[in-house]
Every structure is written in C-alpha cells, then in structure tokens.
Amino acid sequence: xxxxxxxxxxxxxxxxxLPAAVLVVTSHAWGPPVAAAASAPAGADDAYDGSxxxxxxxxxxxxxxxxxxxESATSIVVENAGQNPVHRHTRNLRMEPxxxxxLVATSLEAARDELDxxxxxxxxxxxxxxxxxxxxxxxxxxxxxxxxxSPLVRESVPAADLAGVGEEGYVVxxxxxxxxxxxxxxxxxxxxxxxxxxxxxxxxxTRKPVTDLDISESPKIRNRHLNNWETVRLYAGNxxxxxxxxxxxxxxxxxFAATGPSAGRNLPVVLDRYIVVARALASxxxxxxxxxxxxxxxxxxxxxxxxxxxxxxxxxxxYGVTIALSINYTAPTDPRFAPDTLTEAQLDPYGxxxxxxxxxxxxxxxxxxxxxxxxxxxxxxxxxxxxxxxxYDHGDGANGIGAALEPLGMTVYWRTFVYxxxxxxxxxxxxxxxxxxxxxxxxxxxxxxxxxxxxxxxTKNGPxxxxxxxxxxxxxxxxxxxxxxxxxxxTQEYTGQNTMLAYLGPMWQEVLRTDTYATDEDGGLLEHxxxxxxxxxxxxxxxxxxxxxxANLGNAANLTGHxxxxxxxxxxxxxxxxxxxxxxxxxxxxxxxxWSNEGPVADTVVRMMTGSWEALAGYQTPLGIGHQFAADxxxxxxxxxxxxRDDWSPVYYNRADSAGLGYDRSPTGxxxxxxxxxxxxxxxxxxxxxxxxxxxxxxxxPWGHRMESGRTFWEELVGRYQTGVQYVxxxxxxxxSLEPSIGARRFAEVREKLAAHxxxxxxxxxxxxxxxxxxxxxxxxxxxxxxxxxxxxxGQEHGGFDLSEDSYTIxxxxxxxxxxxxxxxxDPRARHEIVSQAAGVPGRAVVKVTGTSPFGPLVxxxxxxxxxxTQ
Length: 871
Ligand code: BDP
Fold this sequence. Notes:
Pfam family, one: Glyco_hydro_67C
Oligomer: single chain
Organism: Streptomyces lycii
Bound molecules: beta-D-glucopyranuronic acid
Protein name: Xylan alpha-1,2-glucuronidase
Distance between the termini: 80 Å
Keywords: Carbohydrate metabolism, Glycosidase, Hydrolase, Polysaccharide degradation, Signal, Xylan degradation
CATH architecture of the largest domain: Alpha-Beta Barrel
Helix content: 25-40%
Family: Belongs to the glycosyl hydrolase 67 family.
Structural class: alpha/beta
Mean pLDDT: 94
C-alpha cells in the first residue's frame, strides 16, 4: 500500500497546482486580457505550423508534475499487439517517401504507438514499450488491450465491468496491487482500447490526475461520421485564396487525381496528413467518413477509384474509421460504367435493373473494402437528379438503393436538404412537407412509415442551411418511424470561413439540448425529447443512430485553414461521442492539448472561444434574421441582394419594410410554426413568447417592438451588431497579450486573421445597419450597451455616442485643456482606461472601455479628436 499511498499524496499536490480554470469556464468575472506568463511553455515552438493538430505532446512544463506522471507511466505494455491484423486490400500500400507517420496493421499497434509517442513527448523521456512484461507487471505500467489479446487485461478488469461498455467503449482503471499498481486501458474490441488510450493520454495532455482512475465510457451514438465535401466550401486548401490548387493538388485532404509535381502523391500512396487525420478522428471517436462531395462525381464509383478508396480505407482501418461514398442517383446511366449501364427508363427504384445495378457496384466496392459503410445521397436538391425526375418520391428512391445495399449490410444516408419551390412558398417548410407524409404512411402490414430500416434520413440541424443560429429542424422527433441522422456543418461556410475565429461547440450544444417537446401517440410529452435524445435513439427507441459533420479538412499545413477551426472538428467528434458534454469543457481540453497548459493563457484562449459564436451571430445575423450573405460565396453581407431565385436571396429572408424586419412564419404568415410539436408551435406562433434570438425566424418584427431589455427592437438590433464587433475587438487584444506564450508562427497567423476578422465584422455591422436604417427611418441609437461611456473635458460631459463610429469629435474652447478628467461608464461594472490624452488642440485621446455581455467581455476603444471650438 505504501507506494500507492505515495501516489495519492503526490496527487494531492498536483491538484493544488491545477488551476481552478479547468472547471470554471463559464463562471468568470471577465477580466482584462491576462498579462503574459513569465515563461513560455515548452509547446511554444516558433516554427510549428499546427500540423499535429491536438496530438502534439510537448513536455509537461512543471518538473514536479512531470515526475509524478513519470511514476504513473513507467512502461507501456501491449500484449499480442499484432495478433489481429486488420484487412488490407492494397498490396503496395505505402507511405509517401520521407514520411514521419507510419502504417500500422492493428488497432492495438496504433494504440501502442500513440502511447509511445505521447508519453515520450509529454514525459520527456523514453518510456519503454513491451509485449511481455514478465511477472509481476511493473509498477506504473500502462497496460492496453482487450480480454482476447491480453491475459493481463483479462485478469485486471472483470468481464462484467467490460460488458457494460459495448463494442466501442472502454474502461480505464488504476489497479492497486500490493504496494504498487498499474493502469489498465481495456476495450472489448481493439478499437475500444484505442479510444481508451486517447482518453488516457488526454488526461496527461490536460494535466489531470492519472491515479485512482475508474473511467467507463461508451458512445451514445453509433455512427459518428464526417462528410468530406472535398474542395467545396473548403477553407483549408493550401494556396493563398484557400481553395487549393498548389502543386497540382486540388485542396482536398485526400489526393485521388493530383497532377504535375504531386502526380506521385495520389492514393495508394499514403500521405502523412492522412494518418494525422486518422489519429485525430480516432482520438475523438469519429468512426466514418464519406470521402467525396455530396454533389457526387460518378468517377468515385469507377473501378480505378475504388482501388484508391480501398487504399485509403486500408490506411484508416486500424484507427476505427470506415469509409462511405456520396453517389449520384443516375450513376447507372453513366457511360463510364459501360457495358454495365442502364437507360433512364430502367431507373425505376422498384425495378430489378436499378436495384441490381446498385447492388453490383456496392458489391464490387465491398470486395475491396469489406467494411464499406454505404452511400450518402443528395437527390432532387440543388440540381442533383433524383427519383422525382422519374415519377417517384424520396421514399421510393431511398428504399430502392436501400434494398440494393441491404444484403450487403450497408446503409443509405438520404439527405433531406430539399427545397422544391413548388411545394410551398416558404423554403423552410418544404422538407417536412415532402418527408413527413412518407413517415406517416400506413404500410400493408399495418405499420407506419415507408422508409426502410437501413436508411437514415440525414437532416441539417435547422430548416434553412447552416446559418449561425437557426431554430432546430421541425423534422426532429416528427419522423417517429424513420431513422434520423443529424447533419452539422463543421466547415465554416456561413460562420466566417477561414478568416473568423468562431468556435461552434456552443452552437451544437444549443442544438442538441433543444427541447423538441415531442409527444407520443396520445399527445403526452416524451420523457426524453431533446434533439440529442432523438438522435441517440433514446427518445423514440431507434436502434441505429447517426450524427454527421460536414468536415473542414483540407491540404493546408494545419489541415483546417484557421488554427482555431481545428477546435470545431475536435468538438464535433467529442459531442458525437457524447452529446451531453459541455462545449466549454471541450474547449478547455482542446486548448490545453493545442496551445498551452499555463492556467491564465489557457483560460484566456478558452474565453476567446466560448463567446465567439454568439458574437458572430450578433454581428452577422442577430435576433434570428437568416441568410444575409452575398450570394454563393457566403462570407460578406449583402442584405439588399436579390439573386437568381427568391430563396437564395437575402431580401427573401429579411422582408425589410417600413413596418419592420423578419419573416412571418407564425399563423398569420407561412405558419412554419405549425410543423413543430404543440409547445414549440405555440411558443413560436406568438411574438411575445418567441425567444428573442429566434424572433425574426418567426415574425415580421415592428421597429418599435419592445424587447426584454426595455429597448425598442431597432435599438436592440443595432446593439447586437455593435456588441458582436466589440467582442471581436476584445478577442484581438486578448490574443495580442498572449504573444510571449505562443509559438511565433501560429501566433502571427492567428493575429493576422483576427485583424481581418475585426474589419469584416465591422463591415457586417455597418452594411446591415445602414440598410435597415433606410427602412426603419429611425435615428442611430446612442450611448446604449455595456461598453457605453461619456467623458468629461474642461468640466463638460460629452456623451451621446453612436457606438458604431470609430471616432468622435470634441470641441475644446481656446485656452482650455483637452484633458479627459473623468470617464463615466453607463454600466457600473464596466472598466475604463485612458490610454492616451491629447497633447494639445487639435489632438487625439483614446479611452478603452471594457464591458461585459452575456457571452463574454467587450472592448470599445473610443478615439476622441479634440478640435478647436465652443462647447
Ligand atoms: C449549402 C452549400 C452547398 C451544398 C449544400 C448541401 O452552399 O454548396 O452543396 O449546402 O448541403 O450550404 O448540399
């Protein structure tokens, strides 16, 4: 017992070292940006480019803490690591010349190598790896395996304990033995053990205790997938404009057809970055990826490409990541498959020809990729062909392909992103109007719902299209008889692309925790009915479950374009595993793994992240106004634009007129509200009960409408734009304060982005507010908001400032002093600092006011031009 007691005692010491910030992400009194820490962390590597994502493993800085970790990780024991080689189709699978990464043959090898790399780095010493530790296992060993691979695991973790964590779960446990002890990381499968390994490493990466562990984890959702849109909406390509194209590559993370200097870098050659991606996905529990764009090119179904896909699948397989493909509904007519092609007349989803063709193609794929997941289908959407072109509906089409895949154990992910203008004048109602009746349909056997068991309907979180904030899609919970997959967008198409720092964890948390108020057949409220409960199957008892993220991976050095976009991939993966996790906690983990474990530094970066999405929603699309983006590119504002079709146009969504702003979807308007369950239906139908953040999704809000703050809608609206920008100013300044603690390259890259971010946020504010003003006819609100202040010069108070302005003029009488003698903040909690006084008249003074908003700190830098004049 002695040694173990010693561990415990030392851990008490560790705990006192751990900053309380680990747990208090949301409960801060917002302070000024922290003063830079005295010593740069070991991770502050000036040349580092972000290419290891959150799996970099720089040494634990504190020597005392490092020593204690060393005692808890003296050696790595993975018995029979090579025992179960995963399937490998590609004989000549090989890494690129000069690769840093390497191919492994089993998931236990992946686990062993990750532990080796991770502990060597974190503990700053060579931690020995052994297959056969001898008896007894050394104190401090970390033992990884399954009951099948490892007698030690079998001895250490009772079968009943492991039984509870299922196929992909894990147990991480400290085993006390005599005076010492060791740690066991166990899964029922090798992939489960791999997930447990990452969980163990994460404890060290985030400086948590690793003694007295007793962790049991299993995923809440079975299929945790990415959709890879290759080069579309990709902001992580490695050339200057972010779209790729450098060195013959097209910007995509995976090379199938690179040319020129990169011609030798196509699959089956495996690039380092694929393995980094595989490790990163496994570290969060993502277990599948649809390789190609939803607007699918049939080339991915050709034999030559299948060979390449098989190579990719081979490389990813040890990491528990399977592949799938997006398909085009009319692929059978493509001459590239000659002589095995169909005519259009044969595209009857009930016909043997159609089903047979898809079955043959899928079987061909399965021969090369035995764990191939299935197909993602975008049909009758945005110009893609589908069953409706041939007289059938979505249910017929989905079931036709489903039937072809069923004997192969594969699944169809049929997307519900459809908005046929003939269905309803309100785009947001269309998907449910098309899919709802298919779900309600009574079948010959008396059951309800036509969609087959091996088909998921894959639905975006909101009814429009990945806006920064939307109400949840009304289909969640209302498709009782159909498997539903939730689709989230990780790539930041509408959330700042690769310029704006926007951490989307809080948005997904809001979505997943939204109460749908779903009811049972008798109208009683379901016990579990949040969106997450629907998606994980507990609400309505669906056995198969799925969540899908549209990925942000490209060929940029840091893989995601903006360094902080890595956090979105990370948070998606962790939430896909367990959607109840707190987004602030996940941000904290990611920051510690990626940037720094110094308390104040980590804390500042976490604070920058946690409010960033709410700020973005504020300066882009506040109070529930949807889609004000310039057509197509979806980055800049263009509220006055009418573009090709109504439902792609900002004016269609904003409905600006002299009465007010917003789209009436209450019973007096399109009545989208009626598509929700009764409680939400009522709530959204009434402007007085609609949450303000969703106000303009459901109502045409009068300019003078009284808001909760007491302000008019117009004042509140302008205030939202302003506080959004003020948060970005705070973020930019907070980042500047971290310079001594962050490696030079990444620091500079983020700084440059934050400068552009602030300028673009201002552009959003000014473009939108100027346009709305034409309709509201109301004066600009002055001196409102948490960062409002007035100043006293020469005994006179000057206020009435429009917070959208950059500078203000103060007249100073001849002979009087231009000195600011007092600053009066409107909000008593706000702090101020006179940054500089005017040296004379004319002259310039600067006052910084730091205020507080519900989502974080705000900074307004008032620039005063002192000019000659009378007061
Ligand atoms: C929209 C994108 C478009 C995608 C579409 C989709 O602008 O490029 O193809 O979603 O989800 O957001 O299919």
